[in-house]
Structures are given as C-alpha cells and as structure tokens.
Amino acid sequence: MIPYLNVGLLILLFVAGCFCTLVLVVYGIGAVRGFRQHRRQRIQALADAYRRGQRLSNDSPEGAMLRFTRNLFSNVSH
Known about the structure:
Layout: H1 2-52, H2 61-74
Helix pairs in contact: 1-2
C-alpha cells in the first residue's frame, strides 16, 4: 500500500507544479501585454500633444520626452 501512496503523492505534486507554472506563464504574458499597451498609449498621447503643440507639465515623463524631442529637432539644420 505504501509504494502506491508515494506514487500518488508524486503525481499530485507534478500536477500541482504544472498548474502553478501555467498560472505564472499566463500572468507573465498578461503583464507584458499590459506594459506594452500602456507604453503605446503614452507614446500616442505624446504624439497627439506634439501635433497640437500642447505644453505638457514639466513633471510628467511625457513633458520631459516632448521637450527632448523638440530640442532634438530644433537643432537639425534644414
């Protein structure tokens, strides 16, 4: 009886490990997708603000990036 119990526990541990791995992989994929979508939205907001010529606050990352972009392109000779 004892060997069967050990085999059953090993199978149970294996299934639990596979389930936990699957959960972590799915969570990781969701986190990466969420980060990419958030970054895409910030870049789109920056592009919209640049097209409108809107001033963003200096504290925001978008404002800093917008200043950097304007300075970069203002130094380009035509």
